[in-house]
Specification:
mainly alpha, 8 helices
C-alpha cells in the first residue's frame, strides 16, 4: 500500500489530466476500496448478487469521470468513493425495483461491523431518502454516515476529512444513527 503522500501525488497528477496516474491509482487504492465494499455488502440482505469486486469496479468506472476534481488528499478521495459506492447501490436498487415492481426490497443493516447492538434492516432507497433529509437537517452528520457506512472510514479518518475532532465525529455518528433508526422505523413502531 502506498504512503499517503504518494497516493495524494497520484490524485493530484490525475486531476491535472495525467492518464498514467489514473492507471497507477486503481492498484494503489484497490485493497482499501474492496475492504470498504466488503464491509458494506456484508450488511446487506443475504442472497444479493453484487460482490465487493463488482462494487469497486463499478464505482471506479464512475470515478474516472471525476478527473478534473481538485483532490485534497487520500481521505478526500475515499470520501468521494464512498458517495459513489452509495450511488451505485441506489441505482441498482432502483433498477431492480423497476424490473420487479412490488418484489422484495433490497435491505442494508444500520450497524457498525462488530457492534454488539441489534441491527435494523432497511430498504436502500428508504435509506437514501432518509440520508437526503438528514443532509438537509445536518449536512455534517450526513457526511459522517456516508463516510462511516458507505466508505468504511474510521472515526479518526472521518475527523481528518471533515476537519473536526474525533469526539465530534463520535457524537455526530451516534446522533445520526438514532435519527436514522427513528426515520426508518416501520410505521406504527
Amino acid at each position: 500500500m502506498p504512503e499517503p503522500r504518494e497516493l495524494t501525488e497520484l490524485l493530484l497528477r490525475w486531476s491535472r489530466g495525467e492518464r498514467e496516474a489514473l492507471e497507477a491509482l486503481l492498484p494503489a487504492v484497490y485493497h482499501e476500496l474492496r475492504r470498504a465494499a466488503r464491509a458494506k455488502l456484508a450488511r446487506e440482505r443475504s442472497g444479493h448478487s453484487l460482490q465487493p469486486t463488482d462494487l469497486v469496479h463499478e464505482a471506479f468506472m464512475r470515478l474516472e469521470g471525476y478527473e478534473r476534481i481538485s483532490w485534497q488528499n487520500r481521505a478526500h478521495f475515499y470520501a468521494v468513493a464512498a458517495r459513489v459506492m452509495r450511488q451505485v447501490l441506489i441505482d441498482r436498487a432502483r433498477k431492480r425495483r423497476a424490473v420487479k415492481r412490488g418484489g422484495p426490497e433490497r435491505t442494508v443493516t444500520l450497524t457498525d461491523s462488530g457492534s454488539p447492538t441489534q441491527s435494523q434492516d432497511v430498504d436502500v432507497l428508504a435509506l437514501h431518502q432518509a440520508l437526503t433529509r438528514l443532509g438537509e437537517r445536518d449536512p455534517r452528520q450526513c457526511e459522517v454516515v456516508e463516510l462511516r457506512y458507505f466508505g468504511g472510514l474510521s472515526q479518526e479518518e472521518i475527523a481528518a476529512v471533515l476537519g473536526v475532532s474525533v469526539p465530534t465525529v463520535k457524537r455526530d455518528w451516534r446522533v445520526a444513527k438514532l435519527w436514522l433508526r427513528r426515520e426508518l422505523a416501520p410505521s406504527g413502531a
